[in-house]
Amino acid sequence: MSTTHSHTDPFRISGPFRAPVKQKAFSLLAGACLERLLRLNHCREIYSHIQADPGPEPFPERVLRHLGIDVALDEQQTRNVPRSGPALVVANHPFGAVEGLVLAALLQRLRPDVKFMANYLLQRIPQMADLIIAVDPFGREASARDNIRPLRQCLNWLKGGGLLVVFPAGEVSHLHLHRRQVTDPPWNPNLGRLVRKSGAMVVPVYFSGSNGAAFQLAGLVHPGLRTALLPRELLNKQRRRIFLRIGSPLAPESLAALPSDQELIGYLRARTYALAAGQGSVANRFVLPGKKRPQPLLPAPIEPVVIGLLGQEIADLPAAQLLLESGPYQCWQTSLQQSPNLLREIGRLREITFRASGEGTGQPIDLDAFDHHYTHILLWHRDLEQIVGAYRVGRCDEILKNQGPEGLYLRTLFRFDRELLEKTGPALELGRSFVRCEYQKSYSPLLLLWKGIGRFVARHPHYRTLLGPVSISRTYSDLSRRLIAGCLSQQLAHPELTQRVRPQRPLNLHRAPRIKGCSPAEVNALMGNLDGLDQLIADIEPDRKGLPVLLRHYLNLGGKLLGFNLDPDFSDVIDGLLLVDLLHTEERLLERYLGKEAAAAYLHHHCPPESLAC
Q1: How far is 291 from 348, CA to CA, in rounded Å?
Q2: Per its UniProt record, what CDD domains does this chain match (predicted)?
Q3: At what angle do helices 59-67 and 98-110 cross, to 10 degrees?
Q4: Other C-beta atoms within 10 Å of 261: how many?
Q5: Using CA atoms, how far apart are residues 437 and 353, in angstroms rounded to an integer?
Q6: CB count, 10 Å around CB of 125?
Q7: For all residues of the chain together, what is the average pLDDT?
Q8: Coil, strand, or helix at residue 376?
Q9: Which one of 199, 205, 239, 394 has the fewest CB atoms closer than 10 angstroms to its CB?
């Protein structure tokens, strides 16, 4: 069967004969039967109605309206599409036609300079011709030669500042028996060259769903049968809702850093298919070790401590324990022995705050035996007389001297010996940090707490290392948790000390997380890009949250990873043990938290001018 270009009837099947008589006979007999079988006659009827009722909308919108197809999309995600300048939209290809109509209708509302790299057969529809840079996707002997010119047109369109939509698979998603899933075939390697040469922002788009069983079975017989059934599949989408997600734009500089076109394509494909996780598809979730238990009914937190008792304990603290003051905020250091009521309120607020983020002990108060011999740094609102947030700080050298290794909270999560701490030098263990919920809209409380820690370090300059567990809660999808753990393990593992730390409940990070539609190598490409991790997690999570705030903070300080542990006693959070060597932290950050003069004195303490080691 062949098709010829026809503006008069884009859905007519032309016969393979040159002789007029034979051609006529084919049209009357076989052609008519095939059109009914493939439902081309129905497509023709709908097309005629659209032509008779042009309406004010662009043609793609009119087609969707006549088919009764609507689109489910978070409107905020349309902000990910650049409104000007070169942009390349890459999408999976699950249906064949409807996703192109949806993108055309959507993108033409956002900017006027939209083109599609698409099958040359679509030019048979005159209303679509101006949208299309036509290519031959059928892989014939002459296809590579015939596609050279349109590829140049695509590159010129992008270099001229336009937006180009590409379905890199070339073919519609179909059943792959060896993978036991319906997904795109391998993406075209020409996409990598197009990205590198154009310098365009790249926007991944993911469409949920697939064509029906008849389409998939026909493809097992012959790929041409799939193509023949595409009109039927378009009509099958009538009165349906199409779900899509638009990912964050990817900068050309970061993509150009990928070493090969194959890795670039794999990365883009994985970024696209990872968007499926944000739609809650069970098939795309990676279940972490451990049984998922039904959430028990938790006991209520204890009653708040009387404000007057808290204010009195603050007033009784020695002035030397005031670390800093900023407006109505004061940052104090204290202990359980000095301030039992303040610590009781800290324990209450910890549990409330942790529960709100999917963590917590599940007890009425979050206090344990370690609180007795740890220092506590708290942020106090002087005018409201309330605790805003707090940190628990352990002086590892003193705890080892007085309580031994079991006196460290970190030993409940990780196994290590004294030799580890001897290699890190004098260290402070940081943990159990919180900022109460009503203050989390502002970054300043956390900043003031870290400045308080900085002032504490400045007063005890022999401490050069910070150690702390950073939690990844169950509010993150399993895929996000797995990607974060895998990426940090690959990119930020401490080259020496990682071997000295063993988690109490280890995660199996030897295998890449599974993303439906992607190979392990393509998923590994995601985990090899630390710079794009925060953006990737924000794309996956429905509420757009990126990396945990505290984790980002440790990474900014130059933190290195020592290991991951699954904590069933704290709502199954994943704890990453991070180490920060303050002598390797950027000087501007030391000045930010310690103060300029204190930072200079701290560096002088560790690296005096006469020291050859510095």
Answers
A1: 28
A2: LPLAT_ACT14924-like (cd07986)
A3: 130
A4: 16
A5: 6
A6: 16
A7: 89
A8: strand
A9: 239
In sequence order, the 6+-apart residues with CB closer than 8 A to the CB of 557 are 466, 580, 582, 585, 589
**Separation of CA 457 from chain center:** 34
For residues 189 and 382, which has the higher predicted lDDT (pLDDT)? 382
Q: Assess contact for 162 and 108: CB atoms under 8 A.
A: no
**Are 77 and 245 within 8 A, CB to CB?**
yes
Identify which has the larger pLDDT, 126 or 449: 449
Query: How much is the pLDDT for 20?
Result: 60
Strands of 236-308, DSSP E: 241-246
The DSSP symbol for 16 reads S
Q: What is the pTM of this model?
A: 0.85
What DSSP designation does 407 have? G
Nearest partner of 198 among 257, 133, 252, 121, judged by Cα: 252
Q: Which helix (H) or strand (E) holds 60?
A: helix 59-67
- Rounded Cα–Cα distance for residues 252 and 256 (Å): 6
- Per the CB < 8 A criterion, the answer to whether 217 and 44 are in contact is no
Please give the Cα distance from 424 to 420 (Å, whole number).
6
- Could you give the count of Cα atoms lying within 13 Å of 84 in the half-sphere of its Cβ? 0
Question: Could you report the per-residue pLDDT of 475-496, keeping only the tens digit for each?
Answer: 999 899 999 999 999 999 998 9
The β-bridge partners of 250 are 202
Buried b (16+ CB within 10 A) or exposed e, 244-254: bbbbbbbebee
H-run or E-run covering 369: none
E strand or H helix at 177: none
How far lies 605's CA from each of 92, 448, 457, in Å? 57, 24, 12
Q: How many Å apart are CA 157 and CA 133, to the nearest integer?
A: 10
CA-to-CA distance for 279 and 282, rounded, in angstroms? 9
Q: Is 207 helix (H, G, I), strand (E, B) or coil?
A: strand
Mean pLDDT across 453-476: 95
Q: How far apart are CA 553 and CA 556, in angstroms?
A: 5
Of 274, 242, 252, 264, give the one whose Cα is nearest residue 168.
264
Encode 334-363: b = buried (16+ Cβ within 10 Å), e = exposed. Answer: bbbebbebbbbbbbbbbbbbbbebebbbbe
Q: What is the spatial distance between Cα 516 and Cα 185, in angstroms, rounded to a whole number?
A: 13
Tally of helices (H runs) and strands (E runs) in the chain:
25, 19
Q: At what angle do helices 533-540 and 261-274 cross, to 10 degrees?
A: 30
- 201 beta partners: 87
Distance of CA 459 to the CA centre of its chain: 39
CA angle 124, 134, 110 (to 5 degrees): 95
**Percent of the chain beyond pLDDT 90?**
70
Task: State the amino acid at position 590 in one-letter form.
Answer: L
Enter the tokens of residue 437: 């919920």
- Give dist(CA 498, CA 561) in Å, integer: 7
User: Residues of 72-99 as b/e, b for ≥16 C-beta within 10 angstroms?
Assistant: eeeeebeebbbeeebbbbbbbbbbbbbb
Note the pLDDT tens digit of each residue in 384-396.
Answer: 999 999 999 999 9
Burial of 505 (0-12, 13-18, 19+ CB in 10 A): middle
Count how many Cα atoms sit within 13 Å of the Cα of residue 467 in the half-sphere of its side chain: 26
CB atoms within 10 A of CB 156: 12
Using CA atoms, how far apart are residues 169 and 453, in angstroms rounded to an integer?
52
Q: In the prediction, which pLDDT does 373 show?
A: 97
